[in-house]
Amino acid sequence: MGQVTKVLPRQVLPLLFTASLLLLLAAGSAPAVETAGVPGSPGATTTISGKQLPPPDPKFGGEIREKASESKAWWAPRVVPPKGAPNVLLIMTDDAGFGAPGTFGGVVPTPALDRIARSGLRYTNFHSTSLCSPTRAAIITGRNHHVAGSGVVGEIATGFPGYDSVIRKESGTIGAILKEHGYATSWFGKNHNTPFYQATQAGPFEQWPVGMGFEYFYGFVGGDASQWQPNLYRNTTAIYPFEGNPSWNLTTAMADEAIQHMKELKAIAPHKPFFVYYVPGGTHSPHHPTPEWIKKISDMHLFDDGWNKLRDTIFANQKRLGIMPPNAQLTPWPKELPQWDSLGWEEKKLFTRQADIYGAYLAYTDHEIGRVIQAVEDLGELNNTLIIYISGDNGASAEGMLNGTPNEFTTFNGVAVPVKDQFLWYEFWGSDRTFPHFAAPWAWAMSTPFKWVKQVASHFGGTAQGMAISWPGHIKDVGGIRSQFHHVIDIVPTILEATRIPAPDTLNGIQQRPMDGVSMAYTWDKANANAPSRRTTQYFEMLGNRAIYHDGWVACTTPATLPWELSSATPPDVITGYKWELYNVKEDPTQSNDLAAKMPEKLKQMQSVFYLEAKKHDVLPLNNTTLERWNAPKPNLTAGRTVFTYSGGLTGVPNSGAPNIMGKSYTITAEVEIPAGGAEGMIVTDGGRFGGYGLFLSKGVLGVGRGKPVFLYNLLDLKRTTWEGPELGAGKHTIVFEFKSDGPGLGKGGTGVLYVDGKEAARKSMEHTIPITFPEDETFDIGQDTRTGVALLEYRYDPPFKFNGKIDKLTFELKPFPPEQSAEAGSVGRPGPEAAHRKQERLNMRRTASGFPSRVPGRMRERRGRVDAMP
């Protein structure tokens, strides 16, 4: 007979279990463990100390004898949050400047943000990191963005601890903490925290939301996405709900999804609190509101008087609302940006249209957020929900360059679109025919009353965010304003204090780094309305611009490059090439009065504090390059591969997992089988309407011209070049497109030849190719085309344009230039033959990137090497 477990008297077991659980889980200074129900029964619950997450399994507390009839069953208690722990709805919008929403003095109505401010508190001195994914890493971890591996956006990550785009295991997320304490955790919207080289179907998925403690994810991966045809995922699976539904828009669909998710949670587990992290794409480019919102905001004529008068209006509103104190000064307009009155009629008309679309997108985004908040009330949960609504993850974006653009990817590739040519898209601005961004001066205006914009961490124009917090019954000074200095790293500690959940010592077996943030809950007490800030020191750094806040003072560098020019200028030495400024922000909240010349010793003291903080938080080594970092070698699924072979269909592969044809010669060989009656459809594509390529069999018009092999290269929606062959009959065929680059160098053109069954079918040259990046929200697809199509007029098709033949084999052969040849041409990220030449090589590279034609080809049409500029 087997060994029988030693049995203790039944009356002793519950007492022993309770005592051991208390000793195990409530050791140290952690909150007392709260238990409910009969120990060992299926309905028993317990809180946990939270020092170790996940908590260890409790020991079995029942009796085991030889027979079940003589034994006593025992169930481990279900882990629940502390009694009274609220639901948490954490909302953050994107790229909204401090002065954009009406709640903080702007002219765009934001009633949902107003609602939270009226029922809670409005924060006027709250700050971000000045850029997307760094702020997002900080807000979910409670650690400074460099400590969370996100010193910059992942696209320009480098191999240093503060910049590798990997959130370390020692910096566990608020999702992981709350989940282990019994919360239902979810993430809706933008995910710019998965390293780009892990954002494929091959994973790993530890750095996806579902791997970071969020049990449910519905959103897009990357810096931005079309709201009409986004790169959308449910958990880790790509989904395409927009196919065949032209009125579908992610901003509304995301609200629908979150509302349904909360309804399901409360219907199934009404006592289980939820943590919803809700981060829509608005108002990051592309500005994609619905036509109804475009009309509503355009009819209000909010921007007709231009950006200079807009600043005056916003600042007056801020003074009236108490957002800015009476002594605050409006910072001067920069000489680098044009005054509105200096513009011509045509420029004013275009720029007003751009701002109307932006305003419509902001209002639309806030409206859908309002629906989510209303759903919380409809569920009867509003009084038990802590709502944090942050307007923007950084300052307003100037990444549309001086004139704005109908296609943001022209900016990322260093191409400016002239004003006259943008009128080709005027009537369609904001629709799926555009990927628009407004002109840089609007961004400066939306950051009123501060100086600078997104990317610039040295000044509040890049970091100040309006925020409102409500929690009925707990925040009693409703409608109040708080001016204490705080930062996004303070959000997690605030949530933990509200839920009475401690930060863990270990998470998944990893010792946790202490939180950098401090709780803001002390500000909820009316008696503390004017209490000193509990955040006394905070560093800022982004792309070489840096600042230090300490005891009401700010020392900061003067930006040496302009964010709307991106990498077109050679940056100065990152240490010695910057002037420093000094401000007493207690008396001068807008950084208007530079005291550096008057107080050099104070400036030196502040600089010393910055470098102490920089060493402590992995800010070093400082780096102010962008294009170099973009092209520098990184972990990559395709690194070192020159031959890629596929068969059958494959969709939704991000660029990091696809053959990269930019800046090199290449050959694409498709071995296909055509059924009787002919075939059509996409064989392979990367990109879409706003840039990329496609090899496909044409759809034809009314059956005429169907089945022609076509290779189409879309140069950023500015010019399309096509190669076509003869119609293919039934049977096996081999289609080859061979491109020989004129490079090396960014954006170099070349000659392409299309072969069909071994015979040359078409040959033509291109003056330029896309220099830096294909649209990041598009993917590499085989056998169909997800999201948007590369063709526009000629050979136009409707996605998914599935290939109805058979792809037996598809082969890419890449022919990169030798390293030494690339270095001589100025290729970034490869060692040059002589270190003395490197600086000039970098300058040559930047000049190449901006060397596109200064004008869009307009409505020109070339029948074979065709240009399509019509939207």
List the helices and strands and how they pair.
Blueprint: H1 12-25, E1 35-36, E2 45-46, E3 52-53, E4 78-79, E5 87-92, H2 111-119, E6 121-127, H3 132-141, H4 174-180, E7 184-191, E8 216-221, E9 232-234, E10 237-239, H5 250-268, E11 274-279, H6 291-298, H7 306-321, H8 345-378, E12 385-391, H9 408-412, H10 419-422, H11 440-446, H12 460-463, E13 464-470, E14 480-482, E15 486-487, H13 491-499, E16 506-507, E17 510-511, E18 537-542, E19 545-550, E20 553-557, E21 580-584, H14 600-616, H15 627-631, E22 643-646, E23 650-653, E24 665-674, E25 681-688, E26 691-697, E27 709-715, E28 719-724, E29 731-741, E30 748-756, E31 759-768, E32 780-782, E33 806-815, H16 819-824, H17 838-849
Task: Please provide a written account of the structure.
Helix 5 runs parallel beside helix 8 (345-378) and helix 7 (306-321) packs parallel to helix 11 (440-446). This protein has 17 helices and 33 strands. A hairpin with a 2-residue loop joins strand 30 and strand 31. The radius of gyration is 29 Å and the shape is globular. Strands 5, 6, 7, 8, 9, 10, 11, 12, 13, 14 and 15 form an eleven-stranded mixed β-sheet that branches. Strands 22-33-24-29-30-31 form a six-stranded antiparallel β-sheet, with no helix packed on it. It is α+β, with helices and mostly antiparallel strands.
